[in-house]
Amino acid sequence: MAELKRKADRRPGPPPVLAPGHTFGSVTSKISAIVLTDPYDWRWAIGMGIGSSLLLLFTVAVVHLLLHGVGVWGVNIPVMWGFAIINFVWWIGIGHAGTLISAILLLLKQEWRTSINRFAEAMTLFAVACAGVFPLLHMGRPWKFYWLLPYPNTMALLPQWRSPLVWDVFAVSTYATVSVLFWYVGLIPDLATLRDRAVSRPAQLIYGSLSLGWRGSARHWARYKSAYILLAGLATPLVVSVHTVVSFDFAAGVIPGWHTTIFPPYFVAGAIFSGFAMVVTLAVPLRAAYGLHDFITDRHLDNMAKILLATGSIVGYGYAMEFFIAWYSGNPYEGFLFLDARPFGWYHLAYRTMIFCNVLIPQLFWFPACRRNIMLLWVCSLIVNVGMWLERYVIVITSLSQDFLPSSWAMYYPTFWDWATFLGTIGLFLFLAFLFIRFLPVIAIAEMRELVHEKDHHAARHRGLPAAEPGGETQ
Amino acid sequence: MKPSYKDQETPLTLTELTRAARAASTSEAASARQWRSLSELADDGSFLEEVSQAVSGVRGAIHGLDDASRRKFMTLMGASFALAGVAGCSVQPIEKIIPYVEQPEDIVPGKPMFFATAAVAGGDGVGLLVESHMGRPTKIEGNPTHPASLGATDVFSQAEMLALYDPDRSQVVVHEGRVDTWERFLAFAVDLRDRKLANKGKGLRILTQTVTSPTLADQLNRLLEAMPEAKWHSYEPVTRDAARRGAELAFGEPLEPVLHLDKADVIVSLDADFLSWGPGRLHHARAFADRRSQGADAPGEAAMNRLYVVEPTPTITGAMADHRLPVAARDVSHAARALAKALKVEGAPDADANRLAGHETWFSAAAADLLAHKGKSLVVVGEGQPAEVHALGHAINAALGNIGETVTLAPPTTAGPADQLGSLVELTRAIEAGEVDALLILGANPAYDAPVDLNLAEALLNDRGPTLVHLGTHDNETAALANWHVPEAHFLEAWGDVRAFDGTVAIQQPLIAPLYNGRTAGEIVATLLGEVGLPPRETVRRYWRERLPAETFEAAWTQALRDGVIKEQPAKSDADADGDEKAKAEAKPKQYGEPKLDKVKWADAPTEELEIVFRPDPTLWDGRYANNGWLQELPKPITTLTWGNAALVSPALAERLGLQNNQVVELEYREAVVEAPVWITPGQADDSVTVHLGHGRTRVGRVGNGVGFNAYALRRSDALWFGDGLKVSATSKRIPLAVTQHHHNMEGRELVRSATIGQYRETPDFAQAEEQSSHHGMSLHPDPPVPQNEHHAWAMAIDLNRCIGCNACTIACQAENNIPVVGKDQVLLSREMHWIRVDRYYEGESEANPGTVFQPVPCMHCEKAPCELVCPVEATLHSDEGLNEMVYNRCVGTRYCGNNCPYKVRRFNWFHYADETTPSLKPLNNPDVTVRSRGVMEKCTYCVQRINEARINAKMAGRTVGGDEVVTACQGVCPTRAIVFGNMLVESAVTKARQSPRHYALLAGLGTRPRTTYLARLNNPNPDATPAEASAENSVEPRHG
Amino acid sequence: MSGHDHVENHEVYGLMAEFDGAAHLIEATQSAYDHGYRMMEAYTPFPVEGLDLALGYYRNKVPRTVFAGALLGGLGGFFMQAWSAMVYYPHNIAGKPLYSWPAFIPITFEMTVLGGAFAAVFGMLYFNGLPRLYHPVFNVPEFVQASDDRFFLCIQSRDPLFDPKETLSFLESRGPRVISVVPY
Question: Which of A442, B537, B546, B986 has the greatest number of C-beta atoms within 10 Å?
């Protein structure tokens, strides 16, 4: 018995979610230092440089587009949606991981979320911002975008509520709003910390007013907690609904390859899949650059690898089901698309690459060695990002280019301006991300303190001693 | 007309532009003075002064410029004058013209006035009704009372509307490369007349196109009487010489066969594309379609005709055939001989058996069929075949007793030399010999379209060449060589008359005063006749006054103008040539004796080489329409090619030479070499390479310049239509060809449904299989009530058994609905804007000779329209009369509707396609139809403007709209009446069509419940023909495209 | 509620004791409550479980506010759609009935979430009396530590039991690190 227990003790458990030896003070100072005391270092400068130059390209592309019309893109008849919608869905999907981590994992009391939720949420916001520009830009008359909103107007006309595009408008704008609120609420205590630690007057004023005069009173904390939990409770179904509605854009259409009931679950899974891939893509360099290994530990990466594996397999199941139904339904149009056009047709290269990236690559993560190999994990996350972009490409382009009447079939070729706009939004994303890293705490400080607090309690209980106050040791 | 940047000329240099601006400003200043024409302005001399200023201001610029830029400069200056002229352009002519009031039953043309006139297409007249808004012609319809139209028109007549407003039309008199005035030309002409009267017209030559105008012919004949030494030549690149010479061989005199397809049960076409080429094609198409669908709606009494076609290159006639055989053009004569032999025509030579190896059953079956229908069969020989084949054709028809039954013979309706090529050769030789000192070219463009071996252009240029006067609508290749160029009036601006294929004469009355002071050939000739100042209208009236009974003349004249057809008196024996020719035409078809074949020489050079085949372009004809954006962008039947021509090769030949689509090859024929992109065409004869004439214009305007390659560069006087010895060598270059349809088989989908007459009798409802199997109504929502409006429910039915795929509907829709032209680069991106397209699918196992079916696809106006469901802003919604309406100014351009349309009939304005800047194009627009701006979706509206017109008229008359009262543009133009439209709540054509057993809906399985539906196609194959042939109609399609 | 207490005429806001740890603070607060003090407030760098109970605080109106907001948003969303589709501008779209409720569900849901989220955030801020950039406790120099690793208990002068000496001695008896006076 004791024998067993000793063995159990000696068996190495999973790596911790927080490196040992940390106290409230050390957590606070280490994280806030990134914002307050560390100067702009060269890594940040380079990143910001890339981001803002791509942003410049974006501006040029948009001006050109608005001057001449959507014809500057490769879209044609029958493929009337091209990169714009692909990128929209891709970005929105990436956003989902943030909300998922901050909301769902919070409800599930997954303590390992604590150190990554802040920048995951930030990622959500920026991704949604990038996604948001596409539905506007892809319109024939973007300056009339507000006709999709319900506002009293002289035409006595409100939007056409049966159109999935209108659902989209509501879903995406709600999603953006709720994410902002959630993110800001989480930031308030940390802004207070920055206020109290800032040395320069302007910083004190700015952080001070942003923190709304938060002073950490116990009653405030109580309401804060319940509001935060409730927000999480609201955001959880929301995040599922958003990509469901996005999938309706396709599922509500009659086009073979779109008109599929499996789309909602399979889109949501795909969104989480690509989202976590993006979190890994960002987390690995971030923790390397700012030495956050103590907070973003291998445990986090290991968990995210597992999620990639799970969601990737769900996506794979989605592909399999499309095939099966196409064959089983005996519908000639779906049959042609899924069993002929996609795997062997004009776009077979995109399709096969997609399968490789989204279904085969994640299978590596069955092996702990692959999950713990940071470099491999990071490369895989990039591959998954590409794969999920290709998935949207396959769905939008192949389905449209070969629909019901062979007489109207035509291929789609993206133009320079398609690529410019796409890369441009990546620039926008980086730009916002680096601003965030520079001016706001990338990790939720207050929650880290809480984590420290709980860890010590557990430790204390294990040692069967009364809880020591870690605060005391910090001088 | 918005030419894409690829089609535009390179701009002028800055200096030229500034100088031109000065020129423009002077003329605009003038325009303020309310003058109506350059000559009016010229009266007080101030105009000449201004011009001389402008010209002197730029002489420096012109001096030392190369020809190209000088020409550009001239166009530019001309354009600036046009700007001034447009101010007065929509003034109706002062002369009284008579509106068309006697309307066919049940058709309300609407508020605008309709006037009857006639177009001249390759010599033969097509009667038209032209819609005129406030003196501004906007749309052309066919004239139901005119035999060559019967209410329909071809693509060319539709495009004449754009031709009228073409901004690149020649706009000023040009003398020696400088702007000049009509008055100064008159001075020259009068002087010329004096000189020529002095020497009996020696050295004066006149070159016209085919002339069928009695008045013009009469003028020319009078001129020749006055100047016996002068000579009248006429040349038409797409000439009917062969037919006339063939008749001459057979009957001893040049005659034209007049077909009566309505009487023919079995038709054999020997390379004859009688549905789209040759006089009376509209008439023939109607007759053919009527016989095609005789009793087709009652399986029991279906009595279709049967069509055999032997042709080197696929045509729409071949597509309608029950049995089609691709045969090299040179072997068609052997096909004729094979038939003649089988029918025991005496004097017929033996066919070279191995030329037709493998098709013996085909010919024996065809011959048997002909024999079984003596007197009710017909053999037609194409214009592209040499005289002896025509002669043989006559002999066969005679042997079958068809002459006088299904075909009658009449003297040619054309005046002037019967052998046009011969007369052109004679003219060229005379010029080379220096015997010509004055040459009047009236309308023709020989510098571009004369056979290359004549070197006519060089002959005109050499110093012994004549003083050249050119009358033309464009400052074109010939005008570049001319000493005098006079802008020609479009027929919608001119008085005249024209004879149709069967001799019927229509008076042309002007719809609008000449936009650019154009002149007619008649006016030029009149000056030489010393009738200067005689109004053109008087010239025409004067001619007819002599030929119509004086007492009733005014009434007859008035009626002729109103109806568009003139009632001629039977032969008055006044002895002028034109008179008794007309008399013959009018007389009962008299017998010309038995055709003899003894005079015929049978050219016979067995060869294994490739042959080149020349064809007039289906949309540009001989090139005269090259600057017409509508026609450039109109998909050519079969190939769906736009903006350019290609060398059509068979799949087998392409495989043999390793050619791909768009690959450029060098076509070497005799000395000449031309580079052409290849288009692989199923159904093309293996040894034939077909090239279409009319492309590669160098000097016609911003639209047509440099589009395609010039096939005339290969065309020789001794091989006008085809010739052996073509060499094809592949290059590594590629020229992308803008086709509108990239995929050519139906993938086994029941889109165009067809059956043989036998299958139809067994299972009359074969077309409705899908509907029966499909499960509708499985929805959360109940189906919408139909109709939602107790009076009107609009619907359209398209009879695929009648549709010949001529594309007239497409261009008529373009003309009616202000549909923009987008240019080649946009078509390459498949962004063409046509609201109704004609899909073409290939059927059957063989790529070498597939079955070809057509399917016009407009908007289906579904009861449960997928497009409406997904529009976020109610820009497209459903009217209670069943129209799927498009609200342009509500559209934000998400294009979701276009994606979700299963029929892909929605069109999007990717850029600002509508041309709102070119002044001369503004009056072209139909005022009843919105001009769409950038970023909005558009599509077929069932011509809602016409529906509303009819509704308003009905309301004012206090009645409901008749079932067939509304006529859509596509329906009105259709030569075969394949499209019917109307109210399906009352007894109407569309109601009847929807009750036919052949009635089916496209993609009915989707449950969209379209209002536009189809009637299945029938075929009438000969059971005795080869089994492969018989089963070719319904079978799994091969993969190509 | 602390956000709303109207300040009475005292020369000081209260006395503030600084503690090392959460557990220690909770003990002190508990005994202060038992001692009868009510007008007091504890300040911590992170939410400490049980502290609000120790302060005798149990009324949290946030959840019901969120419920109300969500309900309002949802109903509003649905009726906006039904009304505009059926009454305001009825039109025939793809032959669907005017009242095609299944199509209205997604937006109704989104509006529900939106209403709830707004209610949660702004309700929380409202009840907390935020934003309030100035507060007397900020006058205590050590208080900056409250957002770092220190735990404070402040007994306010408006408490009826408040007496500078007694309260001071009471606080000292709880063994804080420092006790400071909180001026206005």
Answer: A442
Residue B335: count other Cβ atoms within 10 Å of its Cβ. 26
pLDDT at B17 over 70: no
Distance, in Å, from the CA atom of B48 to the CA atom of B178, rounded to the nearest integer, reads: 12
- DSSP label at residue B40: H
Q: Is the pLDDT of residue B55 over 70?
A: no
Task: Identify which of A69, A78, A160 has the shortest CB distance to residue B873.
Answer: A160
Query: Per-residue pLDDT tens for B760-770?
Result: 988 888 888 76
- Could you tell me if residue B358 is left (phi over 0), alpha (psi between -120 and 50 degrees) or otherwise beta? left
Å from B419 to nearest chain A CA? 44
Provide ipTM, 2 decimals: 0.89
Instruction: Indicate whether A51 pLDDT > 80.
Output: yes
How far apart CA B31 and CA B919 sit, in angstroms, is 15
Against chain A, the chains showing at least 3 CB pairs within 8 Å are: B, C
- Hey, is the C-beta of A7 within 8 angstroms of any chain B C-beta? no
Reported pTM: 0.87
Confidence bin at B462 (pLDDT 50/70/90) = confident
| Helix, strand, coil percentages in chain B from 3-state DSSP, rounded to 5 | 35, 20, 45
3-state secondary structure chain A: CHHHHHHHHHCCCCCCCCCCCCCHHHHHHHHHHHHHCCCCCHHHHHHHHHHHHHHHHHHHHHHHHHHHCHHHCCCCCCCCCCHHHHHHHHHHHHHHHHHHHHHHHHHCCCHHHHHHHHHHHHHHHHHHHHHHHHHHHCCCCHHHHHHHCCCCCCCCCCCCCCCHHHHHHHHHHHHHHHHHHHHHHHHHHHHHHHHHHCCCHHHHHHHHHHCCCCCCEHHHHHHHHHHHHHHHHHHHHHHHHHHHHHHHHHHCCCCCCCCCCCHHHHHHHHHHHHHHHHHHHHHHHHHHHHCCCCCCCHHHHHHHHHHHHHHHHHHHHHHHHHHHHHHHHCCHHHHHHHHHHHHHCCCHHHHHHHHHHHHHHHHHHHCHHHHHCHHHHHHHHHHHHHHHHHHHHHHHHHHHHCCCCHHHCCCCCCCHHHHHHHHHHHHHHHHHHHHHHHHCCCCCHHHHHHHHHHHHHHHHHHHCCCCCCHHHHCC
Please tell me which of A348-362, B51-65, B769-783, C159-173 the model is most confident about, judged by mean pLDDT. A348-362
| Confidence tier at B207 by pLDDT (50, 70, 90) | very high
- What 3-state DSSP class applies to C72? helix
Q: What is the pLDDT, as a whole number, of residue B597? A: 81
B781 with C100: Cβ contact below 8 A: yes
pLDDT given for residue B356 in this prediction = 84
Distance from CA of C92 to the nearest CA of B (A): 5
Q: How far apart are alpha carbons B455 and B97 in whole angstroms? A: 45
Residues of chain C with pLDDT under 50: 1-9
CA distance A121 to A97: 8
* CB–CB contact A69 B751 (8 Å): no
Highest mean pLDDT among A88-102, A110-124, B14-28, C69-83: C69-83
Note the pLDDT tens digit of each residue in A213-251.
898 888 889 899 899 999 999 999 999 999 999 999 999
Q: What angle do CA B223, B227, B232 make, to 5 degrees?
A: 60
Considering only CA atoms, give the Rg of chain A: 24
Q: Which helix (H) or strand (E) holds B498?
A: strand B496-499
Give DSSP secondary structure letters for B617-641. BTTTBTTTTTT-HHHHHSPPTTT-E
Q: Using CB atoms, pick whichever of B748, B908, B909 lies closest to residue A80.
A: B908
Q: Does A419 have pLDDT greater than 50?
A: yes
